[in-house]
Amino acid sequence: MKTYTWTRGEYTVTTDLSKVDLEKAALLFRDDGWSIQDRPVDVTISAFKHSITFFCLHGEEPVATVRLVTDFTTVAYAADMIVKKEYRGRGLSKFVFECIFEVPVFKHMRRINLQTPDAHGLYARYGFNPVAHPEEMMERLCSYEEAYASFRENRDAGIIDGE
Amino acid sequence: MLKRSWSKNGYTVTEDLDGVDIDAVCALIAAQGWGCRNRPDEMNRTALAHSHNFVCLCGGRPVGLARMVTDYATMAYVTDVCVAPDHQGRGVARFLMECIVGNPPFGGMRRLTLCTPDARGLYAKFGFVPVARPEEWMERMRPYEEAYAYFAENGGDIYSRYGEHNKEMD
């Protein structure tokens, strides 16, 4: 897998998992008020590994992340965008999104979706618009508890690799 | 990763693309009336290679497809659900969805998402509902021509190529 690394001043954005303390990155979601703050670290780390994850590092410390769940061809979903509280207001979400569109396949991808309660303005700068046909979008949700339990069962049964 | 298969009424749904006629799977996508019908076969092959696929076979011939773009941990996007014109109305899409949501890992996944202009009734039978907060959803779309041209210029499976890219940003 090709890896990308960009630097700007004291900050680095990288897609190279080997440069990142994944547990620390997963802990960014704790105590943040998100509904996923209780997501177990092993679930988040597995999600990082099965996505293209953009980690923003300050020195070696993960301070922001976003990941793209993608087929590398037609579609991606941008998930779990987070900036550590003490690092907000420093342009790191912008840095991370600029890096996403430095990767040609994402720049030219037919469709990238995301969901945001309040950062529409930020994403609009990178070419995101409200979905044209919201009435066509459907979702099937399981409770977090059920989903986390299911992840572990499937991993233990070898249905997913879970790494 | 397990590769499973399920059979019913003369149809078999399989997760295992080994031995499946991929050209015929690409033809299924091309036979749809959607905007993606002109997607080059080579692009479909790459998309399939990076997805978790459910292919419905009838007598060994691919007659249905559902493609899951997933992180195997939190979510999946269900796409390219299609049925061969001569097998429509025979429950193929329904069988595909039964296999997907009736089994792990997708049956217990936190979120499955899809986009459908006209098959909401089908998906509702499998637990899909209109998104709860449509105002939160955003999309970044590029014209098909641009996406296809980029792919054509850069060839097949670009993300399997090993390499490093480093850049200083302004």
Structural notes for this entry:
The complex is a heterodimer of chains A (163) and B (170). Chain A has a single domain, classed as Gcn5-related N-acetyltransferase (GNAT) (Aminopeptidase). Helix content of chain A is 28%, strand content 29%. Chain A contains six helices and eight strands. The longest helix of chain A has 13 residues, at 144-156. The mean pLDDT of chain A is 94. Chain B has one domain: Gcn5-related N-acetyltransferase (GNAT) (Aminopeptidase), CATH 3.40.630.30. Chain B has helices at residues 22-30, 41-49, 92-101, 120-124, 144-154; strands at residues 5-8, 11-14, 52-58, 61-70, 75-83, 111-115, 129-130, 137-141, 164-168. Chain B has a six-stranded mixed beta sheet. Chain B is globular and about 60 Å long. In chain B, 37% of the residues are buried.
Explain briefly what this protein structure is.
The complex is a heterodimer of chains A (163) and B (170). Chain A is α+β, with helices and mostly antiparallel strands and 163 residues long.
SSE blueprint:
The complex is a heterodimer of chains A (163) and B (170).
Chain A: E1 3-8, E2 11-14, H1 22-26, H2 41-49, E3 52-58, E4 61-70, E5 75-83, H3 92-100, H4 104-107, E6 111-115, H5 120-124, E7 129-130, E8 137-141, H6 144-156
Parallel strand pairs in A: 5-6
Antiparallel strand pairs in A: 1-2, 2-3, 3-4, 4-5
Chain B: E1 5-8, E2 11-14, H1 22-30, H2 41-49, E3 52-58, E4 61-70, E5 75-83, H3 92-101, E6 111-115, H4 120-124, E7 129-130, E8 137-141, H5 144-154, E9 164-168
